[in-house]
Structures are given as C-alpha cells and as structure tokens.
Amino acid sequence: MDIQSILQALEDTTVAAWIRESGSIFPNLESVHVIGIALVFGTIAVVDLRLLGIASHRRSALRLIQELLPYTWVAFSACVITGLLMFASNATTYAQNSVFWWKMGLLSLAGINMGIFHLGAYRRIDEWDTTLPPPSQARVAGFCSLALWACVIGLGRWIGFV
Amino acid sequence: MSSELIIAWIYASPVSTAIRDMFWVVPTVQSVHIIAIAVIFGAAVISDLRLAGVLATDEPMRSVIRRYFPWMRAALIVLLLSGLVMVIGEPDRVLVNTTFWLKMCLVVAVFTLAWSIRRPLLRPAARAQGDDEKPPIRALAWLSIALWCVVIFCGRWIAY
To answer: Do the record's keywords include Ribosomal protein (chain A) (predicted)?
Structure first.
C-alpha cells in the first residue's frame, strides 16, 4: 500500500466523511485545537521563562516543571487528537500542503529540544533549581522552545492560507 | 449614520485597503492574536486553578494571582489591538457578524469577572486571612475558565 492510497483510505473513513459533511464539527475541532494550543504554549511559556531566569509563581524550577507538565501533556493530547481528526477529513489535500509539513517538522524540533533538555540540564537540576540565573543549557533550551512553539503556531495559521 | 455606511467608510479607508492588499498582514496578526490568547488563557487558567484550590496550593493565593494578572492585562491589550487590525481590515465580514458581537460581550464579561475575583488579592493591603478558597471563589474560578473557552469557540466561529 503506498502513501497515496493510505491517505485516500483515511479520507474515505466514516469519521472523516462525517466531519466533512457536517458543517459544525470541523469548527468545533478547530476551537478545541485552539484551547489546546493556548494551554500548551501557555504552560510551556511559564516553564521556558523560568529557564530563562524569569521567576514564576514559585522559585523552584523542578517543582514548577513537575506541576505544569501534566497540563501541557493533556493539552497536547487534545491537540493531537483534534489535529488527526481534522487531517483525516481532508488527508490527501493536507498531505500536499508544504506548510503543514513545515509545522510537523518544527513540532518535531520542539520535541527534540525538550528531549535534549530533559536528558541534559534537567538531570542536574538539583544544582541550579533555585539559583538564578539558570545555567546556559537551560537558558538555550527555554529560548529555543519559545521560538519553536511560536513558529509552530504561526505555521498552523498559515496552513489555511496556502 | 447607518452601520452599512460606517462599514463602507472603514472598508474604503487607506488603512483597511492596505491591510487587505498586503496578503501577509491578516495571517500574521492572527498568529499574534493566537499567541496572546495562549498568554491570557494560560495565565488565567493557572491563577484560576489556584483560586479553585487545585494548583500550587502551597503558595499563597495572593502571590500566584499577582504573578499572572499583569500578563493577563498585557495580553488583553495585544488581543484588542490585533483584533482591531482584523476588524479594520475586514469590517464587512466582522462587524455584521453576530458571533463577533457575542464574543465582544463575553470578553467584557469574563475579564470583568476575572478582575473582580482578583481585586481583593491585588490590593497592597490584602490580608493573609483571605487566603482560603471559599466556595463562591472556587465556583467563579471554574466559571471563568469555562467562559474563556466559550470566547475561544466564538473566535473560531466568527469565520464561519
């Protein structure tokens, strides 16, 4: 089975057809997607600003990350689910949209950036948990995260314009 | 002056024409609008969850509220300014839309609600005794979160 026929099969599913034919499901999926984006970027921004040395509502970076990350993950799951449903409804068209693929690429980079941080500076967080400024690795991770996620949001908007 | 005349006047203005002619303006302004939504919603949810007694209960309510309210205020300004650009650019689409006006009423309502819950805690003389999550505050905090979600739904539905 090649990619094109997989995409077509996805688009031909009952769920995908239901989304396409109903006038209200897609806008509601988009709305939930925006709520998810707002929480993903909002919570990630609080952590990233802390990594950049801007204090949050608590001093400990570790406790802040532990406190907010569950919300980030729940919100991200909502984005993935609504995103997959929206993609499925017009799979063959979206697959040809280069902006969509740029968005997926930057999303992956954001994930890799998070992974590098969690395997690096985060492992040694006891050393810099309540001291300011944080180590340069943490600051770079925070800055890249903010930049990458802002671009993901911008590209997400551009998908509908190309 | 009828609304049609006002809309036509805005539409014919050089600013409105420029916004529509430069194809990148609307999507860029929309992206700024979404980032500001993330800031206001994130700040609102984190502080509302503290008010509801769900998050950061080891930190004083006062300090959590004070940390996030300035961000909510700044984000609101960005939202209003970016929104204004979109209204000026496409007055014929936005100003006749009932969902848009519903959203505007809800924005006023939810921000007034958010500010009035927080006001006692923002005053310099706020006493520590006010630091428990009394039932009306909890319910109002959850209502606030729900209203922000409705605002976001309205925002998306304007385009339909």
So the answer is: no
Closest residue to A67, CB basis, from B42, B56, B68? B56
Q: Are A156 and B156 in contact (CB under 8 A)?
A: no
> What residues make up the domain containing B97?
3-157
Per residue in A43-93, pLDDT tens? 999 999 999 999 899 999 999 999 999 999 999 999 999 999 999 999 999
Q: pLDDT (tens digit, 9 = 90+) per residue, B61-102?
A: 999 999 999 999 999 999 999 999 999 999 999 999 999 999
Q: Which of A151, A157, A159, A161 is best to mutate for the B interface (most B CBs within 10 A)? A: A157
Kindly report the backbone phi and psi dihedral angles of residue A93, in degrees, each rounded to the nearest multiple of 5, phi listed first: -75, -50
Residues of A in contact with B59 (CB under 8 A): 57-58
ipTM of the modeled complex: 0.94
Structure-derived torsion over alpha carbons of residues B137, B142, B145, B150, reported in degrees to the nearest 10: -120
Separation of alpha carbons B57 and B85, rounded Å = 40
Q: CB-based burial of residue B99 (10 Å sphere; 0-12 exposed, 13-18 middle, 19+ buried)?
A: middle
Distance from CA of B100 to the nearest CA of A (A): 15
User: Is B42 within 8 Å of A41 when comparing Cβ atoms?
Assistant: yes
Q: Which two tokens stand for residue B113?
A: 């609600």
